[in-house]
Amino acid sequence: MKIMSLTPDGSGLVDWPTLSTQKRSVVTVGSFDGMHRGHQALVSRMVEEARKSNALSVVIMFDPRPKVAHTYGSAHDGMELPTDYVDSQALTSIHQRLRVMEELGVDHVLVVRYTLAFAAKSYRFFLGQLVGKLGMRTLVLGKDAVMGSGRTGDAKSIADLAAATGVFEFDQVDSQGPGEVRVPAQWTYQVPQGPGEPADPTERMSKAELRAWSKDHQGRLTRIWSSSNLRYLLAQGRIKAANEILGRAHAVEGLVVHGEQRGREIGFPTVNLADHVEGFIPVDGVYAGWLVDLGEAETTDAADGQGVADQQSVAHGYGSADGKGETKDLGQTAWSGQTDAPGTPLNEDDFHRQLVSDRARMAPGSPWRWPAAISIGSKPTYSERTGLLNRVIEAYAVTDQWLELYGHHVRVEFETFLRPQVKFDSTEELKQALAENVQQTLDVTAYSTSKS
């Protein structure tokens, strides 16, 4: 899979590359945040159609998410989103999406920085560019896709344009999945009140009760297979439902840094993640899941004597050479995609080398993969004493090995919610609860392993 970063100029024009002088392209477009089953169905159809016609399969992936760019612009007098802006609501980083796309057999991914100037172009102009520059013969989109200035390029308009011009075909994919569900228009993180995976609050409601709930919460019909529903589920701690939509365990990835070493003192040494992580952080609580060591980060800053890595420059193998010997990190949610020369190809050798390594380390039975009891929160048992109220992610790997992972890039996968964060009266009570969580984790991950 070949990857290229593209940055529009100040007027919103993109210098599209010539992918082939002999083959035409089958193209799909979107941000693909989460790469859930709906996205996978769309990309798989695109790859299938390309292979049928001996064409190139091409994904045009927007970064940042269009909603983020437009929301920021509305709040800042039309300003473009800063290149260092961190999207805390992104479900997955760019390189997490690239992993899935490579597995699906995509030939080319063009990562386009989404700007307001770019968005101001009409969908007719945009599609004309794809036909003329990329040789697009077929466009594959989902039913609810929209594009172009004022979001006027909906499925019907695009289908009419394809029929009228005859220069490309439009393939509309029904990736609705199992249907729709009501999601509050303005949801907030909701910490489960008791142990175990929380249930759908609307599951046993009558029609009248559901209408009342929808009115109170401004519930909107949303596709079950959607990024919006995924964020809502993760913010409630409903991990199993989210994983069903993803077709895999939801995960965050980040750099291991030194913590308070409180866990080591009580016999449960944990891996602590840096403040900036890649992926959507679920609601506070204790979870069962997995810890995967993805290898030592290439760029670290040990100036503080603790080996803490520079969170903005962790090179994870997905880079874009800009002619100055530097690498733009695709592992960071805030990756800017800026290059000196538009259309600079990413370092393909680095990408595939890292991909092979990641696959081996993430695979079931890998020696770099361990069951893990995961905590998200502010450590309520000690926060009053220490004054530290930061929201932290830490994972206790259930293994007899001594793990020295400082400065490593790790993946934390969530299988199920175990319990909310609780303030214990003593360290002994905390240790007893952690021991129970470890056993629960072993039970859950043994079941997960047997299923796979």
What does this structure look like?
By secondary structure, the protein is of the alpha/beta class. The chain folds into 2 domains: 2-177, Rossmann fold; 180-223 and 226-312 and 360-451, Riboflavin kinase-like (Elongation Factor Tu (Ef-tu), domain 3, Beta Barrel). It is built from 13 helices and 14 strands. The strands form 3 sheets. It has a 6-stranded parallel sheet with strand order 1-4-3-2-5-6, with helices on both faces. A 6-stranded antiparallel barrel has the order 9-10-13-12-11-14. The two termini are 27 Å apart. Pathway: Cofactor biosynthesis; FAD biosynthesis; FAD from FMN: step 1/1. Belongs to the RibF family. Residues 245-446 form the Riboflavin kinase domain. GO terms for molecular function: ATP binding; FMN adenylyltransferase activity; riboflavin kinase activity.
Topology:
Layout: E1 2-6, E2 25-30, H1 37-52, E3 56-63, H2 66-75, H3 94-103, E4 108-113, H4 116-119, H5 123-134, E5 136-142, H6 155-165, E6 169-173, E7 180-184, H7 207-217, E8 219-223, H8 227-236, H9 239-246, E9 250-257, H10 262-265, E10 271-273, E11 285-296, H11 348-362, E12 369-377, H12 380-386, E13 392-397, E14 408-419, H13 427-451
Parallel strand pairs: 1-4, 2-3, 2-5, 3-4, 5-6
Antiparallel strand pairs: 7-8, 9-10, 9-14, 10-13, 11-12, 11-14, 12-13
